[in-house]
Amino acid sequence: MKLAAVDIGSNAIRLQITHVTHYEGNTNFKKLEYLRFPLRLGLDVFHEQKISDKNKRKFVKLMKAFKLLIDLYEVDDYMACATSAMRESINGKEIVEEVREDIGLKINIIDGNHEAELINLALGNYIDDKSYLHIDVGGGSTELNIYINREKIATKSFKIGSVRALEDTIPLPVWKSMSKFIGDHVTKKDQIISIGTGGNISKIFELSNPSKNKRFLTIEKIKEVQSYLESFSIDERVNKLNLNPDRADVIIPASKIYLAAMEAASSKKMIVPDVGLKDGIMHVLYRKNRNKKPRAGTE
């Protein structure tokens, strides 16, 4: 079985195509294709409340390319989800409808809670009977989920994202509301462990020179990497640290969001699993299609 996930974010857009096989009682997920295109829809929306004509044209071309790949790989099922930039854009629904009619690609504009639920599906192996704060920082929003004894006790989406922070468009009351939400649901005795998802925390983890087989960061290490990054200009981050241009400018604002959430929870440690929205979409697609007979030659 072949499945495809499209994640239409505020800072970039991703396509992943996965081959799912069953062998000797085991289910295996093999990544066949992964593409990340740096189209910053959020920059338009957070300033002008709409996607510009230029970026609309780029977006439509990109969706045509993704649809061609989905068809060429003979994918059995796919799901495309658009998050904060598209849902806040006054012309977002119009663009989605144009893509559906002209290209045949269906896009779901999802709210923050649905986005958080999809990401949570990919976190099953990381949640046990301890207390966790899941922090997912995107370009336009941050999703928080709090788990106590394997039970999700609270979830909320905030208009706090790396692109918004870069452009300094986050009002102080919004920052305060995020801290209050965390403080209302956890106490120091909970000994909260954070779980960080998103491209920026994954890059921070990579830059931390992690030990083999250990996917966690201390809050001190995050601050150390943040300070290291701040010692370089954006051009130096691109040319000396080999960061993508659309990562080089937002990674420090993103780090501040993760740290703000961790400090509000008095959390000292963060697990950094290599999962995101696209992986949650894959879980939904697999559950939907696992009992279907695969097309000939795909299994």
UniProtKB/TrEMBL annotation:
Q: What is this protein called?
A: Exopolyphosphatase
> Where in the numbering of this chain does the Ppx/GppA phosphatase N-terminal domain appear?
29-282
SUPFAM superfamilies the UniProt entry points to = Actin-like ATPase domain
Annotated Gene Ontology MF terms? pyrophosphatase activity
- Gene3D superfamilies in the record: 3.30.420.40, Exopolyphosphatase. Domain 2
Q: Which domain of life is it from?
A: Bacteria
Q: By its UniProt entry, which InterPro entries does this protein fall under? A: ATPase_NBD, GppA/Ppx_hydrolase, Ppx_GppA_N
Pfam families reported for this sequence:
Ppx-GppA
